[in-house]
Amino acid sequence: MTETASGPARGSRAKGAKAGNKGLHIERIHTTPGVHPYDEVAWERRDVVMTNWRDGSVNFEQRGVEFPDFWSVNAVNIVTSKYFRGAVGTPQREVSLKQLIDRIVKTYRKAGEDHKYFASPADAEIFEHELAYALLHQIFSFNSPVWFNVGTPQPQQVSACFILSVDDSMESILDWYKEEGMIFKGGSGAGLNLSRIRSSKELLSSGGNASGPVSFMRGADASAGTIKSGGATRRAAKMVVLDVDHPDIEDFIQTKVSEEEKIRVLRDAGFDMDLGGDDITSVQYQNANNSVRVNDEFMTAVEAGGKFGLRARMTGEVIEEVDAKALFRKIAEAAWACADPGIQYDDTINNWHTCPESGRITASNPCSEYMHLDNTSCNLASLNLMKFLKDDGKGSQSFEAERFQKVVELVITAMDISICFADFPTQKIGENTRAFRQLGIGYANLGALLMATGHAYDSEGGRALAGAITSLMTGTAYRRSAELAAVVGPYDGYARNAGAHNRVMKQHADANGTAVRMDDLDTPVWAAATEAWQDVLRLGEKNGFRNSQASVLAPTGTIGLAMSCDTTGVEPDLALVKFKKLVGGGSMQIVNGTVPQALRRLGYQEEQIEAIVAHIAEHGNVIDAPGLKPEHYEVFDCAMGERAISPMGHVRMMAAIQPWISGAISKTVNMPETATVEEVEEIYYEAWKLGVKALAIYRDNCKVGQPLSAKKKEEEKAEITEKAEETIRTAVEKVVEYRPVRKRLPKGRPGITTSFTVGGAEGYMTANSYPDDGLGEVFLKMSKQGSTLAGMMDAFSIAVSVGLQYGVPLETYVSKFTNMRFEPAGMTDDPDVRMAQSIVDYIFRRLALDFLPFETRSALGIHSAEERQRHLETGSYEQSLDDDEVDVEGLAQSAPRAQELKAVAAPKAEAEAAKPVPKQAHTSAELVEMQLGIQADAPLCFSCGTKMQRAGSCYICEGCGSTSGCS
């Protein structure tokens, strides 16, 4: 993209500027002249049916939606259910991604033309096509309100983040309740600082004592809990901040700690205190994130072990002195106990403030990434970093810095245009946002990019690459902002704040100049960033800036899933294996595609890579992987598991990118359950020393109101059982060793022969069973006698058959071999198993359908075509039978299937009934729990019942895209 009015820029970005020629000339990045981006991809129709797997109910259904064939099932489901507008089943309902993208990009183009952003209609058309291409190919995404609202008859709210203000008057406090409620109703979140409200230790003008901000928090919390967010069942998203010098600071720190104690008492008394439980509403302060705003004076006093003054709100005089170190300890103790409060570093934040003449930064949005003036908003967009990694598949990689810059310019231009037509929830927010035009460009998939390029998340190389990309992004964004200022003018507040704004630009540029370069990947990016910041300083002095803020790092929860990102925001990978939904139904477990990319970058050969990937698929980690050097283990460290990234590793990553983020970073530093209060203190102290603007910690299982609250009881029960067993073992003098006994089949045995094709490969399977008790042997015939494949199938059949006869349960084989992927794979001729990932995947799905009882195979996610149809019609896979009837005709289709009749008509022995049913994963988070034998401390999704995973300061449901608070 180029711009003609601000004077010549570097390289190919400027094209013949002429005096008085206003408007941007838009350069093509991805599109072809004369060809619409939609015509360059293959489209297909999909059916979106989303269910709550716990009760089988259908949460959402829309059939025949149109998407590109390369879009993942999950991305299609989320975009269809969350972003398509119009009532389902009506002609007004959107049915194609084309309609959704057109609704947005055509609105942006028209607003850009109306407000004179483009030099010509041709430039406007290129802008529209490039924006459509980038959205179509998941290169970036706007924040959710854009997808919800733009181009619809409803108010076109484009911002996800809001900061409010409240003064020391009842009128202002009631306005706070109202404004916050309207923002929640619209599906967004808000934050504010309560420090202007006088403390409970100060007097009212009438002579009585003030209530204090903590008391007014109760009313706001109850309001948020009632309204919820966007009318949904999830909690509202809000942030409450209090300055560390407020006389009520200790009460504020203790609010949630006290409520957690209440939750424990009520839980032990038998009340339902899980998150979303019927009785959790009886406790207070649960709908907000709390943060203490500390300043350098306080932190210096903590270092020195000195006193710190708490100041009256009305006069500013010190009314009480406290021990700074003791107060800091109380903050850490509270965070250790219940994860609140987080911490924000006031002087660091305001040192990077571009508009100090218009007011201080006192608060943030709920996730702490947007920090600017009170009564303002910020619209966000995030780039998918993996789309800019150029990888030849042989270990040679580069980050496409030039293309990245062009996309940043495109996105920043679109984001600024959106403020021209946007609606806002209050008049004050609308006026201030139009006057300061805050933007928040950011990115997702950083964790995936670092692993794919062979960088450990907690390493100097990883931090250098992350810093370089962040610097390039923000430098390019401000350069485009300066170019826009020459075309459509700087933001209204710029003239008053010009000196401060340009000072902050120089701080960014200076930080870029002193950053450490590490390797061949980050060095070229740093060079491009240096050039961008030089342009920023030059053009900013000449033109000013169109935007007072350019970048933030948001959680990217729902939009990250819509872009099929492996990691959200600044987060590392959750784990090395993940859960993938398949087109046409079903799912599979896969090793992250970033793993082989990383191994190639590190110099491993394809045979070694295959062996390492196979090890990860089986064990979920790289420990003792064949041929993997121990010094490379750290590259594959993740957020969970045996080699989880240390808490300080997360803090160091935040510090490495903070100097080039206009706002802040949404991130919670996860700590193990065994972490101490001293470690929490260290995190909060080191973050201040390293220049981080804000963060929060979460110690595993510190919240009582989580679905994992029964975990402790189970652990205690297991511990008691283990001790009892140990006592019995020591008491028994004689040790009896049990060995399996082979149960051979009789000479005559019932059987089924099934012909099949998988991906065009033909074969036959004969499955013989015991006359009275299930499968006993399997024979597989493929290819010509004497061929390698025929021999391997014979050997595999014998091994499985012997195992079955020695008592290995069929469900064990099914759980191990289904979803195994290798060629041949693809379509089958079996109506019950339409797609197979391999021959063995098909074989054991067919065996499960023929020989396993419904409950067991249903738990493994294996259903017949008839059962899947029944689920679509009734919401249940299981056939409804009267109490005294059994559908003998439906069950007794073959001798082995007739065994199921016994299971229905005459219940099995008690020991058999107590046999555990294999657990099925429904998201990557649940898969990690199963594979690594750990519990992710996260709530269950209110919409679909699956385990959520952390995204920044929030939780995101990978299954349906719902969030715990942030859009």
UniProtKB/TrEMBL annotation:
GO terms for molecular function: cobalamin binding; cobalt ion binding; nucleotide binding; ribonucleoside-diphosphate reductase activity, thioredoxin disulfide as acceptor. CDD domains: RNR_II_dimer. It comes from the Bacteria. It comes from Streptomyces lucensis JCM 4490. The keyword RNA-binding does not apply. This is Vitamin B12-dependent ribonucleotide reductase. Residues 1-22 are annotated as: Disordered. Residues 749-849 form the TSCPD domain. Belongs to the ribonucleoside diphosphate reductase class-2 family.
